[in-house]
């Protein structure tokens, strides 16, 4: 089951030097350019970024949360050496020279992280330089309504258009409904409602995929989830699994203040 669930992530990461053997996900864990989505404009999602490895290949996504910090999945942050990791900000088309490409000076990973299926799949990258891109908002414990089943959320990324399919080469976005914790637990035995949340249609058809891992799931401009893992891409009865960001907001903000004073 582990291999099957993360085949989206495995395909995206095993080709990288030092890549982790973690299950494929809708984001880095599941490398898809968002199945069932449409081409998006970076100006509409200025917080959206993608990660590249030492060869300059896009393999994950992320979201700007401050002038010096990018939120992503732990399995994305640990997939390559820090010295090889670059963050591309403000670029809609992967092959263009739009925006800027920055190095990473520090990486914070949730202390309990082991692999996507075990939860805690969240990390913050400290950029080597400040960026002017608008930051996405982080949720707090009072934002429980953002996770209500049926609430529509937007997932953005540069991943594959369908499982094992081609990458679009440009930013895509799609709308998916939040799924109840009980419904997700019925599908995935490893689902942990404290660290994970699900989103997707019962009939499938719309989902994150290989290459989208680490990218944001947003409700009204707030990052409620991070593409983490799933079983295939956009399959019926198998919603995407995302890291529940609200669980980590206090830790992220405390770490940011400690390191930058912001």
From TrEMBL:
Q: Cite the entry's keywords alphabetically.
A: Disulfide bond, Endoplasmic reticulum, Glycoprotein, Golgi apparatus, Hemostasis, Hydrolase, Protease, Secreted, Serine protease, Signal
Q: Where in the cell is it found?
A: Endoplasmic reticulum; Golgi apparatus; Secreted
Q: Where is the signal peptide?
A: 1-30
SUPFAM superfamilies attached to this UniProt entry: Trypsin-like serine proteases (SSF50494)
SMART domains annotated for this entry?
Tryp_SPc (SM00020)
Start and end residues of each Peptidase S1 domain? 34-257
Looking up CDD domains in the UniProt record yields: Tryp_SPc
Question: Single Gene Ontology BP term?
Answer: hemostasis
> Per its UniProt entry, which superkingdom is the organism in?
Bacteria
Entries under Pfam families matching the protein: Trypsin
What is an example of a GO molecular function annotated in this UniProt entry?
serine-type endopeptidase activity
Tell me a GO cellular component: extracellular space
PROSITE patterns in UniProt = TRYPSIN_DOM, TRYPSIN_HIS, TRYPSIN_SER
This protein's record includes keyword RNA-binding = no
Q: Which InterPro entries match?
A: Peptidase_S1_PA, Peptidase_S1_PA_chymotrypsin, Peptidase_S1A, Serine_Proteases_S1, Trypsin_dom, TRYPSIN_HIS, TRYPSIN_SER
Q: What's this protein's name?
A: Secreted trypsin-like serine protease
Which species? Saccharomonospora viridis (strain ATCC 15386 / DSM 43017 / JCM 3036 / CCUG 5913 / NBRC 12207 / NCIMB 9602 / P101)
């Amino acid at each position: 089951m582990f291999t099957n669930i993360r085949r989206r992530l495995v395909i995206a990461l095993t080709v990288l030097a030092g890549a982790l053997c973690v299950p494929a996900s809708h984001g880095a864990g599941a490398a898809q350019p968002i199945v069932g989505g449409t081409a998006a404009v970076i100006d509409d999602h200025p917080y959206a970024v993608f990660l590249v490895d030492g060869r300059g290949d896009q393999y994950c996504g992320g979201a700007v949360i401050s002038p010096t910090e990018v939120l992503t999945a732990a399995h994305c942050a640990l997939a390559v050496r820090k010295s090889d990791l670059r963050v591309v900000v403000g670029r809609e088309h992967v092959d263009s020279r739009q925006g800027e490409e920055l190095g990473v000076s520090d990486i914070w990973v949730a202390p309990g992280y082991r692999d996507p299926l075990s939860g805690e799949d969240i990390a913050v990258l400290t950029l080597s330089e400040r960026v002017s891109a608008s930051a996405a908002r982080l949720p707090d414990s009072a934002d429980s309504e953002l996770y209500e089943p049926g609430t529509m959320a937007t997932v953005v990324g540069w991943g594959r258009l369908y499982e094992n399919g081609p990458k679009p080469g440009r930013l895509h976005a799609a709308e998916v409904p939040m799924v109840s914790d009980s419904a997700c637990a019925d599908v995935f035995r490893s689902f942990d409602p404290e660290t994970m949340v699900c989103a997707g249609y019962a009939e499938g058809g719309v989902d994150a995929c290989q290459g989208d891992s680490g990218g944001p799931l947003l409700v009204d401009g707030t990052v409620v989830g991070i593409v983490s893992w799933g079983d295939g891409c956009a399959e019926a009865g198998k919603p995407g699994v995302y890291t529940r960001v609200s669980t980590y907001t206090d830790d992220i903000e405390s770490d940011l203040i400690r390191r930058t004073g912001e």
